[in-house]
Specification:
The chain is α/β, with parallel strands linked by helices. It folds into 2 domains: 223 residues, Spore Coat Polysaccharide Biosynthesis Protein SpsA, Chain A (Alpha-Beta Complex), CATH 3.90.550; 209 residues, UDP N-Acetylglucosamine Acyltransferase, domain 1. Helices cover 19% and strands 31% of the residues. The protein has 8 helices and 39 strands. The strands form 6 sheets. Strands 13, 15, 17, 18, 20, 21, 23, 24, 26, 27, 29, 30, 33 and 36 form a 14-stranded parallel beta sheet that branches. A hairpin with a 5-residue loop joins strand 8 and strand 9. It binds uridine-diphosphate-N-acetylglucosamine and calcium ion (CA). The site of uridine-diphosphate-N-acetylglucosamine has 27 residues, from strand 1, helix 3 and strand 10. Uridine-diphosphate-N-acetylglucosamine binds next to strand 1, helix 3 and strand 10.
Length: 456
């Protein structure tokens, strides 16, 4: 079946008090609208085919700039005259669709599972509403049923009688509509209501009049249908999302010392016996293998941490691979392109960028290693710097197996320190060092005996 999806995202979101459109605010590190787009794509894949239309209005350029990479039909709604009017703008592009699914750009956590079950209920010939029962229904459209429990209409909060206001079953806004009926209904909408808006919800009464059955489905989790109108609600939804993520990680065998102090902003895949201490942030695609410990205050972004490694407090690992049984930090920074083999030690205040380090090598204190290839069993002394940048270009440093770089050396790239050689502490190395040699490149120490300081 062909199901077209219309995502409504034209509203201003004035209560966010922001220069950015509401739907570009992040939940779990990703714009709310992007969550909805990705779920729409996933849903469509499993249901069949279809197109995705996003109705935008306020700050539409900013939205397109941020999310233009997705292959979507952007529909412009000049004036926001109501949800029915918004859907109307997209309908001309939906010809031939068996079903139309309407989603909201500010209801980010809807799951494809709930949407698939809604589309199955619709099946191209029923009007299917996603509803939920809540204790405080104020602000929502109420679901009106007859004496037999059959849905008759949706009445908006501002138009409801006091009797209707007491109804706890509400419209989440997410609706699946038969393709063959929608263009008839959508053009019949009137704005004769308290808000002078064209309400999409008025199609429910039309369906009843046309003997099209109206059915409902409910989401498996209430946070799926929670909308965001303010920064406070944004935070509340973020916390609810993070709590859920932490719970599912713990149930899958990860030890999390405090589930209220971990943030997962992306996709984390884990194995057993991982320990994550407080205030850790995981971003992008991260893989953590078994027996890894991540101490407090670490940020791990788009990286792969292999089994048995220990990331000590306050380290940042970005676009990097950490081999098995490595020790990183505390206070280490692995920048993009760092690739560590197994059993590598990287200590405090060490920064590594775009470099590979082979097994059993150590860079334990206060170093900068950039654009380098470091062999096995290499010991890099404290304060060693690879001078990879001449102000214009970046150059490579090659440090072969078994070398020993004395503390506080500057290696001026391009340069190669060949196999098994030693660089004396405090050297400034400008030329290649041959294998198995000792290189000393510093001023010699002179001792002047019986020397007296002036004025003493
Ligand atoms: C809507 C529903 C209500 C439901 C509630 C759930 C209608 C008439 N009412 O009410 O039954 O309980 O959602 O949250 O549908 N939008 C546009 N263009 C417009 C108007 C709205 O794109 O012209 C977008 C908004 O950006 C927003 C969404 O549609 O993402 C919902 O609009 P909003 O005005 O918040 O609807 P509610 O009054 O909350
Ligand atoms: Ca409204």
């Amino acid at each position: 079946m062909r199901a077209d999806i219309i995502i409504l995202a034209a509203g201003q979101g004035s209560r966010m008090k922001s220069d950015y459109p509401k739907v570009l605010h992040n939940i779990a590190g990703k714009p709310m609208l992007e969550h909805v787009i990705l779920t729409a794509i996933e849903t469509q894949k499993s249901i069949g085919e279809g197109n995705i239309h996003v109705v935008i209005g306020h700050e539409s350029d900013k939205i397109k700039q941020k999310l233009g990479k997705y292959n979507l039909n952007w529909v412009y709604q000049e004036q926001q005259l109501g949800t029915g009017h918004a859907v109307q703008q997209a309908i001309p592009y939906c010809k031939g669709a068996d079903m139309i699914l309407v989603l909201y750009g500010d209801v980010p956590l809807i799951s494809s599972m709930s949407l698939e079950s809604l589309l199955l209920s619709c099946n191209g010939n029923r009007l299917a509403l996603l509803t939920i029962n809540i204790t405080n229904p104020s602000g929502y459209g109420r679901i009106i049923r007859d004496g037999f429990g059959k849905i008759q209409a949706i009445v908006e909060d501002k138009d409801a009688t006091s009797e209707q206001l007491a109804i706890n079953e509400v419209n989440t806004g997410i609706i699946a509509i038969p393709g063959k009926s929608i263009s008839i209904w959508i053009n019949k909408l009137k704005n004769h209501n308290s808000q002078k808006e064209y309400y999409l919800t008025d199609i429910v009464a039309m369906a009843v009049e046309n003997n099209v059955s109206v059915v409902h489905a409910q989401p498996s989790n209430a946070i799926e249908v929670e909308g965001v109108n303010s920064k406070l609600q944004l935070m509340e939804l973020e916390r609810a999302y993070q709590k859920q993520k932490a719970i599912s990680l713990m149930l899958s065998g990860v030890t999390i010392l405090d589930p209220s102090r971990i943030d997962i902003r992306g996709e984390l895949s884990t194995e057993h016996d991982i320990i994550i201490d407080i205030n850790v942030i995981i971003e992008g695609k991260v893989i953590i293998e078994k027996d890894v410990t991540i101490e407090a205050g670490c940020i791990i972004r788009n990286s792969h941490i292999k089994a048995g490694s220990h990331i000590k407090a306050n380290s940042i690992v970005e676009d990097s691979i950490v081999g098995e049984n490595c020790n990183i930090g505390p206070f280490a920074r692995l920048r993009p392109g760092t690739n560590l083999s197994n059993d590598v030690n990287v200590g405090n205040f060490v920064e590594i960028k775009n470099s590979t380090v082979a097994t059993y090598s150590k860079i334990n204190h206060l170093s900068y290693i950039g654009d380098s290839t470091i062999g096995e069993q290499v010991n890099i002394g404290a304060g060693t710097i690879t001078c990879n940048y001449d102000g214009k270009n970046k150059h490579q440093t090659i440090i072969e197996d078994n070398t020993f770089i004395g503390s506080n050396s500057a290696l001026i790239a391009p340069v190669t320190i060949a196999y098994s050689s030693t660089v004396a502490a405090g050297s400034v190395i400008t030329d290649d060092v041959p294998k198995k040699s000792l290189s000393i490149a510093r001023g010699r120490q002179k001792n002047i005996e019986n020397w007296k300081r002036k004025n003493t």
